[in-house]
Amino acid sequence: MDDSFAFGKPARRQASVKRVRLPKPPSAGGSRGAGLGRVALLVVGGIVVVVVIAGAMSFFKSSGEQIASDQQTEISQIGAAKDVDAKMTVQEAASAVQQLYAEQGSYTAVTPAALKRFEPTFTYTTSASTGPNAISVSSSASGVGIAVLSDSGTCFYARYTTSGTGQGTGTTCTGAAALTSATS
């Protein structure tokens, strides 16, 4: 036995190599149309993007304005809540003033000390009111004025005179200012 190896008989024909045909490049006229189509597509895409961005910005603006409006409403409600304390104090002090006047028969008897004995819940002074629990009182023979400063900064007045009563607001938060004010 022979240790040699053979592939067999040589082929009579040589194997042919097939050539792959590449597609023809587009003609000069066809590339111009495709380029214009791409430009038009980019322009339309750009317009769509601009419209979407403008719409989003408009939405965000209106949302921001709504949030600001809601916050302003909350702030005014907080101020109104702070005013309620001062108004309640004025009402309770007014009730005490009317009862003292009914007992004593004179507005001159309505003093900070007399009010403190009658209604000890609050602080009474002839100076300016410093908060919703501090009542400024001024009395004379013709009437009594009381003033209470709210935490919101508003000063509430009440005035009781021989010619009538009145309530209102003012900038100087003293009973004397309340007594001389033109409150209704």
What's the overall geometry? Answer: rod-shaped
N-C termini distance: 138 Å
So how many helices?
A: 3
What is the total tally of β strands?
5
Strand content: 15-25%
**Coarse structural class:** alpha+beta
Q: Tell me about the biggest sheet?
A: 5 strands, mixed
The strand order across the widest sheet is 1-2-3-4-5
Mean pLDDT: 82
- What is the number of independent domains? 1
The amount of helix comes to 40-55%
Description of the molecule:
This protein is α+β, with helices and mostly antiparallel strands. The protein has one domain (32-184). It contains 3 helices and 5 strands. The chain has helices spanning 28-104, 112-118, 175-180, and strands spanning 123-125, 134-140, 143-149, 155-161, 164-170. A 5-stranded mixed beta sheet has the order 1-2-3-4-5. The protein is rod-shaped and about 145 Å long. The protein starts with 27 loop residues before the first helix and ends with a helix.
Give me the secondary-structure topology.
Elements lengths: L27 H77 L7 H7 L4 E3 L8 E7 L2 E7 L5 E7 L2 E7 L4 H6 L4
Parallel strand pairs: 1-2
Antiparallel strand pairs: 2-3, 3-4, 4-5
Summarize the structure.
With 184 residues, the protein is an alpha+beta fold. The protein has helices spanning 28-104, 112-118, 175-180; strands spanning 123-125, 134-140, 143-149, 155-161, 164-170.
